[in-house]
Amino acid sequence: MKDIDSYMGNFSPTMPTIYASDASKLIKKASRNFMLTSILLVGIFGFGILDILNEMHLIPVSDFIVDLIIVSICAILIAVTFYFHNQNLKSKKIFDRWSDMFKKNSISTAMRLTLSRRTKEDALKAIGETLEEIGEGLTREAMRDPTRFIDVKMPNGIHFDVLVDKDRTLDPHLSRAIHDHGAIIIKITHNEIKFDEIMAFSKMISQYVSQTGNKVGLSLFISPEVDNKILDLVGRSSDKFMRNMILVEKTSVNSSTR
Fold first, then answer.
1. Which of 24, 59, 117, 227 could bond to 53 as cystine, CB 3.0-4.6 Å?
2. Among positive and negative, which fits the CA dihedral 146, 133, 231, 125?
3. What confidence tens digit (pLDDT) does each residue in 83-125 have?
4. In what order do the strands lie in the sheet with 183-188?
């Protein structure tokens, strides 16, 4: 099975096929493991019957031999159980990472379709239309006063093009929903994304978390062009804030800065 990291930053149309292939391999491996367990259980059952027949003096077999065989099979079964547990943890990790990748891809696609221009106001509006759990309340507040979420300046010189967190909302229900989801942070550039810009954005997100104690549920970096090498570097990064970042490629006719 290929290393799943090789696909993490590269949203290809063939991804569903790759995912189905890996899932099929995992299922086949689980089926083989199930067969092995079944064989061992049948063996234990068989020797249990043998022990009963021996106790009834129907088959002259030494008690020590029967007990030794049963203990040996149980030891093998315990070892196999630990092996299965380890394989299940690996499978869960793979599926969790695939799920995360598909979620990122869905949000990126939705943002590209919803954004009409690369402006802060449009990005805020697009978030309201993309995230179902907070969308209605955020759209309502953004229509009344979008300035609370745009060009947000934090201590230590931190500046976000768009910041949506529980501290900037007036609706208590929306505040709780954002608290559960996590803050939404957006950066917009009108040039091709550079890796040093991504590192700087990731550092600002880390500082925001340290200063506020808020978790970040979504961070977006919107640009007219995103190179596949950049996507790959972000997907493989050891920095969790960078690795969780979604790079959105959006070209637009009118992308004037506001």
1. 59
2. negative
3. 777 877 777 777 777 777 778 888 888 888 888 888 899 999 9
4. 150-153, 159-164, 183-188, 216-223, 246-249
Length of the chain: 258
Q: Which residues contact 198 (CB under 8 A, 6 or more apart)?
A: 221, 230, 234, 242, 245, 247
Tokens (6 digits) for 45? 């059952």
For residue 92, the one-letter residue type is K
Quote the pLDDT of residue 113. Answer: 86
Q: Distance between CA atoms of 237 and 203, rounded to whole angstroms?
A: 13
The pTM of the full predicted model, rounded to 2 decimals, is 0.67
Angle, vertex CA 176, rays to CA 174 and CA 177, nearest 5:
60
* Residues forming beta bridges with residue 220, ordered by sequence position: 186, 246
User: Structural domain boundaries of the chain?
Assistant: 4-106, 115-249
> Tens of pLDDT along 208-242?
999 999 999 999 999 988 888 888 888 788 888 88
Residues 6+ apart with CB under 8 A from 195: 230, 233
